Amino acid sequence: RDGAVFALPLFGTLARRIECERWARGVATLTAGGIELSEALSITGGALSNSRAVTAADHVASGVREGRALATVMAESGLFPGLVVRLAKAGDEAARLSDGLSSAADLLGEEIDRTLRRVIALIEPATIIVLGGLVALIVVGLLSTVTALNDLMVR
Questions:
Q1: pLDDT for 38-66, tens place per residue?
Q2: Please, are residues 38 and 61 in contact by the beta-carbon 8 Å criterion?
Q3: Rg (CA), the chain
């Protein structure tokens, strides 16, 4: 079921970005606070709500515990956008992983806000049209009732 959420055209991308942003922000905050990377990855994986994202985060955590590079394991997981992987790699190489992941989380947050604004902008006119149609149906129903009553009184 959670995998199907990621497959939805617009909402899947949004859900994936939200999970990635939550993961990146969590790992950045924990590593900036002095928590070891492997422990921060394990903790942050538990904060995700989508089971497919949790599986990807667990894959990343186990890969890092095995000594593999964070960016490599992130790319293999299939969850993280390329920009997030590149920022994590740059931050890791510069020994400022928390800064790289924090920047990635900020960018993802901005993308989420833009996407939500677009979705709301699309839903608003559709809602107005649907409500207008409902009002029109009610008016037609009332007018047909009045017309039918008028016809009965004329006879």
A1: 899 989 988 888 888 898 999 999 999 99
A2: yes
A3: 25
